[in-house]
Amino acid sequence: MRRVLLFALAAALLLVAALLREPPARGEKTTLGAVGESMGGMRVVVIDGLFFRAEALRRRGRLEDAAGLYHAILELDPANEAATIFLADLFVDGMLPGAVEAEARFLWWREARGVLTDALARSPTSAPLHDRAASLITRLPLANPDLEPRLARELGNWRLAALRHLAIAVEQTGTLARRGRGHVVHASLLAPDVAARALRADDEATYTEALRLGRRLQVVRAGVLEQVLMEADRPESLGALLAASLDALEAVAAVPGQPDAPGAAEAAGAAVARVEGLQTNLLLTRLLREVLDGHR
User: Fold this and answer.
1) Is residue 194 part of a domain?
2) Does some domain include residue 295?
3) What is the rounded CA–CA span in Å between residue 181 and residue 177?
4) Contact 105, 89 (CB under 8 A)
5) Considering the domain boundaries, does residue 289 fall inside one?
6) The domain containing residue 215 runs over which residues?
7) Number of domains observed in the structure of the chain
8) What SS3 class is residue 219?
9) Within the chain, which residues score under 70 in pLDDT?
10) Which residues pair with 237 in a beta bridge?
11) HSE (side-chain half, CA atoms, 13 Å) at 84
12) What is the four-CA torsion angle of 268, 271, 277, 282, rounded to 10 degrees?
């Protein structure tokens, strides 16, 4: 009998959640939130049912209804990181591609970022949330190049903004098994890229911050960096690439300060060549060579 009542309550809450077409104002106390606080252990059962129903609706293309259920989960359990990430993904992977106008697509991206920003205000050291926030930033211009100017107006240096999220994720990830390697790989490739772009733009503050975050990554995730190979049939690790990239950045940056050292530029060129030999993506070496040529 108890089980029947339990599932009857779950079904009733599912119906209520589905009717909540508009999410509540941020920070607003809702009836459903108050119900969640009073449910105790029963809340877990109800939330599981909401997740199951939301996924079924998403698969059937009923994205707005699925979003309503994820909002309902977050009202019942505001700290639910899975619901936060699923809702953000629904906005950028489901709603955004269906919008025609650039402004509409960017608004869906902003909705996703708003969900993550609210969650990070509650859990500022959450590795999963910071990892997803970084991915949200870097994926947008790749899939929607026309939205990059809007992204730049919104965040300024959006690559640096993503790197800052990744830096927190890297610091807070306690075990490899829990979060995997994706955020470490992302950070180790992004830090030198941000630093090189800043060096080319003569942006010393950004260069210094990106270089510092890259060096910090070497310290806190050395073991992971050495486990990840650049290519399956080559022995070079991601750690070797990161070290060579950061060394090359410092060597190139030091050239203007050594006008009486004719070998400085040659040494920097050799450092850049080492990076070039380790990777197939030559964007970093191209940026560094542009800076180096400007110093000669």
Assistant:
1) yes
2) yes
3) 9
4) no
5) yes
6) 157-296
7) 1
8) helix
9) 1-45, 174-179, 231-233, 257-262, 280-281, 295-296
10) 229
11) 24
12) -50
